[in-house]
Amino acid sequence: MDYRRFGDTIVARIDRGEEIIEQLGEIARREDIYLAEVSALGAVGDVTVGVFHTAEKQYHANHFTGDYEIVSLTGSITRKDGAFYPHLHMSVGGTDGSVVGGHLNRAVVSATCEMFIRLLSGNVGRRFDSEVGLNLFDFT
After folding, report:
1. C-alpha span between 3 and 35 (Å, rounded)
2. pLDDT by residue (tens digit) across 28-70?
3. Please, which of 58, 106, 114, 124 could form a disulfide with 48 given CB 3.0 to 4.6 Å?
């Protein structure tokens, strides 16, 4: 992984064999990021995405291996209890043109990942909402 900061934007390259969330976390720690918007594209060979089942208040994971293009990776960086908290969604396209996606749990880069992290001034935390079953934005 390598990156450069240009004003309020970080441009990052995540390399083959690296896990996306781990590398994003490393950047967030180095740059002391409290609030940011994330977008990326590239290719992955091992990806786990989940779908939140609202009635159960649980994520159900789907794991895929093979050749996949990142069609879309979007999300946010905030903090929960002072620690890095990513909330990312990813869609990937397979060799047959089919697309799958959901909440990103894990993705290992197979070629490269080009990421843009737009830094926002301020601090938005997270708090668990038992009614919804998720860690929601906390503006307090």
Report:
1. 18
2. 999 999 999 999 999 999 999 999 999 999 999 999 999 999 9
3. 106
**How far is the CA of 3 from the CAs of 28, 47, 71, in angstroms?**
11, 23, 21
User: For residue 29, what is the enclosing H or E element?
Assistant: helix 20-31
User: How far is it, in rounded angstroms, from Cα 45 to Cα 20?
Assistant: 12
Which 3 state secondary structure label does DSSP give 30? helix
- pTM assigned to the model: 0.96
> Can you tell me the distance from the alpha carbon of 118 to that of 124, in angstroms, rounded to the nearest whole number?
15
Closest CA to 70 of 88, 44, 105: 44
Strand partners, 19: 108
Give the integer Cα–Cα distance in Å for 119 and 51: 27
- Find tokens 């490393």 and name the residue: 26
Q: How many CA atoms lie within 13 A of 102 on its CB side?
A: 16
